[in-house]
């Protein structure tokens, strides 16, 4: 983090160097919580309503009691104020971390939460095409916790290490049944015959914010989109393959060193609307 970062901890502004956690902290001891990453662009929290929806879904799955402050309409203004204090209003990355408070071993004594928001200036991502290989070391697993971020973080850490070892831009994760699932920090989509495809949630992929917006876009434009269980070989037959997350959309130019054709008017239209 940058020096002198100002944080929002349980509703109070604090300086980074003042932040202290007890040894009993359940995020540290048991990873008992979740996180949400939001992009700030030109003074706007992009897709904030979708993020709020996923925050509530995650809390429900983990049986956490969210404070009213996080759900209140005024919370958006508080987050933008924090972005301004950290010079991140033009373009920044906000992370909300929520975890169960209190003591206990695996069985907690409370469902109340503590929470922390950090905001840092960031650089808009490069939109160039990426090269991807299939991850061999880990597989995604569908569960009541797989659709949001946090509980399965180590899976993506290991996939990230493999990406580094393989010197790839990203890694394609497969489910235990060897179906296409997702990338390290993005959902994956492809186009064939004027129809979009993306892995079904039962492959264990995260229910991404951009994924939700692409599904909504297709519904509004009356474009067919299928959520499927497909194997890697079927991607080679696509007209275009791309990744999507809150930072944007990137085409995939190579999969397992095989070139993928990516000129597609439907994808161009989608990118122009959601960029």
Automatic annotation (TrEMBL):
GO-annotated molecular function: transaminase activity
Catalytic activity: L-leucine + 2-oxoglutarate = 4-methyl-2-oxopentanoate + L-glutamate; L-isoleucine + 2-oxoglutarate = (S)-3-methyl-2-oxopentanoate + L-glutamate; L-valine + 2-oxoglutarate = 3-methyl-2-oxobutanoate + L-glutamate
Any Pfam family matching the protein: Aminotran_4
Superkingdom of source: Bacteria
Gene3D superfamilies for this protein: 3.30.470.10, D-amino Acid Aminotransferase, subunit A, domain 2 (3.20.10.10)
Record InterPro entries: Aminotrans_IV, Aminotransferase-like, BCAT-like_C, BCAT-like_N, Class-IV_PLP-Dep_Aminotrnsfr
Keywords assigned: Aminotransferase, Transferase
Annotated CDD domains: PLPDE_IV
EC number: 2.6.1.42
Metabolic or biological pathway: Amino-acid biosynthesis; L-valine biosynthesis; L-valine from pyruvate: step 4/4; Amino-acid biosynthesis; L-isoleucine biosynthesis; L-isoleucine from 2-oxobutanoate: step 4/4; Amino-acid biosynthesis; L-leucine biosynthesis; L-leucine from 3-methyl-2-oxobutanoate: step 4/4
Enzyme class: transferase
SUPFAM superfamilies assigned to the protein according to its UniProt record, in alphabetical order: D-aminoacid aminotransferase-like PLP-dependent enzymes
Family stated for the protein in its record: Belongs to the class-IV pyridoxal-phosphate-dependent aminotransferase family.
Classification via PANTHER family: AMINO-ACID AMINOTRANSFERASE (PTHR42743), AMINODEOXYCHORISMATE LYASE (PTHR42743:SF11)
Name listed for the protein in its UniProt record: branched-chain-amino-acid transaminase
Organism in which the protein naturally occurs: Pontibacter silvestris
């Amino acid at each position: 983090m940058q020096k002198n970062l100002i944080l929002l901890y349980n509703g109070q502004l604090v300086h980074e160097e003042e932040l202290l956690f007890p040894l009993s902290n359940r995020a540290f001891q048991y990873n008992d919580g979740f996180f949400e990453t939001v992009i700030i662009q030109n003074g706007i929290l992009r897709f904030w309503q979708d993020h709020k929806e996923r925050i509530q879904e995650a809390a429900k799955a983990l049986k956490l009691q969210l404070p009213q402050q996080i759900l209140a309409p005024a919370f958006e203004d508080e987050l933008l104020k924090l972005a301004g204090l950290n010079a991140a209003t033009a373009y920044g990355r906000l992370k909300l971390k929520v975890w169960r408070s209190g003591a206990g071993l695996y069985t907690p004594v409370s469902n109340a939460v503590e929470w922390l928001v950090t905001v840092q200036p960031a650089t808009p991502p490069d939109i160039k095409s990426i090269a991807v290989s299939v991850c061999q070391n880990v597989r995604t697993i569908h569960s009541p916790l797989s659709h949001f971020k946090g509980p399965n973080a180590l899976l993506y850490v290991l996939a990230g290490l493999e990406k580094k070892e393989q010197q790839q831009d990203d890694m394609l994760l497969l489910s235990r049944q060897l179906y296409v699932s997702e990338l390290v920090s993005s959902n994956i989509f492809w186009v064939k015959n004027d129809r979009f495809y993306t892995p079904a949630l039962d492959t264990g992929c995260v229910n991404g914010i951009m994924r939700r917006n692409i599904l909504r876009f297709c519904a509004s434009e009356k474009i067919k989109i299928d959520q499927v269980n497909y194997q890697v070989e079927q991607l080679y037959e696509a007209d275009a393959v791309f990744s999507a997350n809150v930072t944007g959309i990137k085409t995939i130019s190579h999969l397992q060193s095989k070139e993928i054709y990516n000129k597609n008017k439907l994808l161009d239209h989608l990118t122009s609307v959601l960029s």
